[in-house]
Write a structure and sequence with these properties.
By secondary structure, the chain is of the alpha/beta class. It has two domains: 278 residues, Alkaline Phosphatase, subunit A, CATH 3.40.720.10; 90 residues, Gyrase A, domain 2 (2-Layer Sandwich), CATH 3.30.1360. The chain has 13 helices and 20 strands. An eight-stranded mixed beta sheet has the order 7-6-8-1-9-18-2-19. The chain is globular and about 65 Å long.
Length: 407
């Protein structure tokens, strides 16, 4: 055999091996769990024995880097689409389409189930297109009214739905007849977010919430063992963002600087302002001159590492508070709302307090493997790799940044 032919065959063999799915689709199962606002270092407090077992036997990252803004809906959609918020469309928990004046708000059921806001393709859409049945329990974006864009099985969100009921539903899905059961399931648990906001990330109450979610992990793995799936399912546990301590004493009143009657979205860590075109420069200059405990940018000059300018839903002026500081419209608004949060998120995604966790275990993953920080936009291509399907080409995620954690 001549050298050219040998090289050709060798290259072809390498391409074949690299293109192969990690597991065959028929035997592949993935359970993706989000512990909302479970900060990167919560599992290092010595109170998470079940998560520690996953660390010892599977893959654990130093942290999971969120996208900006480090809010719940933008990041859950980034995780499941592999796209930055500027590209998947959910740029904040609350924003307005400047052309139609339609408003998106996470508390508005009609808005969050309307597919027009969601510009990216979620993994469950990709999987279903490839004949893989999927299910989701409360993952943001999974309740779209368009049946072609949601999982085969979904549950309408209930804030206070018992966590054990959510686990029961996952197990029941996996116990369905083989031809009917989902092979990809996403699950959302909100304990550490609710408690972190109310009591702060350094409180006894958050430690109790951490213990609760760790116990749920143990219960889940016990139930998987009962149905003989603990060795065949890949479980990924992550969080959308972290949490940091805040104080009502660290408030910045924006209308004291720019005056009233401007269109403002958001408060706390990040705020967007849409002044009239002839007032844009004036508003920016006023904020820039008083810049203290925050950074102000126009949509055109925001640093590129934020990936937060390529969308008309992003307002022309963006203010990002320093970690621990809070942005608000005015003193009356702030006091009337009785701002009681002791923990917040939404800050610069380079702040380590905003980072979440990433743990994984199962037949697709290396054993006892530790790595540095991973990026949450790379989860979508990772899921595609595990199932051996082709990801969308317009994503921001890269398998090269995360694929090394697979066997």
């Amino acid at each position: 055999m001549n050298k050219f032919l040998s090289r050709t065959l060798a290259v072809a063999l390498l391409l074949f091996i690299s293109a192969r799915p990690v597991l065959s689709q028929g035997n592949t199962y993935v359970l993706l769990i989000s512990y909302d606002a479970f900060r990167w270092d919560y599992s290092g407090r010595g109170i998470t024995p079940n998560l520690d077992k996953i660390k010892a036997g599977g893959v654990s990252a130093l942290s999971l880097r969120p996208t900006f803004p480090t809010k719940t809906f933008p990041n859950h959609i980034s995780i499941i689409t592999g796209m930055y918020p500027e590209h998947h469309g959910i740029v904040h928990n609350s924003f307005t389409n400047p052309v139609t004046d339609d408003h998106y708000r996470t508390s508005n059921k009609k808005a969050i189930t309307n597919g027009k806001w969601y510009l990216g393709e979620s993994f469950w859409e990709t999987a279903e297109h490839h004949g893989i049945r999927t299910a989701s329990y409360f993952w943001p974006g999974s309740e779209l009214t368009d049946s072609a864009r949601r999982p085969s099985f979904t549950m309408p969100f209930e804030q206070n739905k018992p966590y054990i009921d959510r686990i029961d539903a996952v197990i029941n899905w996996l116990k369905m007849p083989y031809k009917d059961r989902p092979h990809f399931i996403s699950l959302y648990i909100n304990a550490t977010d609710d408690v972190g906001h109310s009591y702060g990330p350094d409180s006894p109450e958050i430690n109790s919430a951490i213990c609760l979610e760790d116990s749920l992990t143990g219960i889940l793995f016990g139930r998987l063992k009962e149905i003989n799936m603990h060795d065949s399912i890949n479980v990924i546990i992550l969080s959308d963002h972290g949490m940091t301590a805040v104080s009502k004493d660290k408030a910045i009143f924006i209308e004291d600087i720019i005056g009233p009657n401007y269109k403002i979205e958001g408060e706390g860590p990040v705020m967007m302002i849409e002044p009239p075109a002839d007032k844009l420069q004036d508003v920016y200059i006023k904020l820039k001159q008083k810049e203290n405990h925050y950074k102000v940018y126009t949509r055109d000059n925001i640093p590129p590492h934020y990936f937060f300018n390529d969308n008309p839903f992003i307002y022309p002026v963006i203010i990002i508070a320093d970690k621990g500081w809070l942005l608000t419209k005015n003193r009356t608004f702030f006091n009337d709302k009785e701002y009681l949060y002791l923990g917040e998120h939404g800050y610069d995604n380079n702040e380590l307090d905003m980072h979440g966790i990433f743990l994984a275990a199962g037949p697709a993953f290396k054993s006892g493997y530790k790595t540095g920080s991973l990026w949450n936009i790379d989860i979508y291509p990772l899921l595609c790799k595990i199932f051996g399907i082709v990801p969308r080409q317009n994503i921001d995620g890269e398998i090269e940044r995360i694929g090394f954690i697979l066997k």
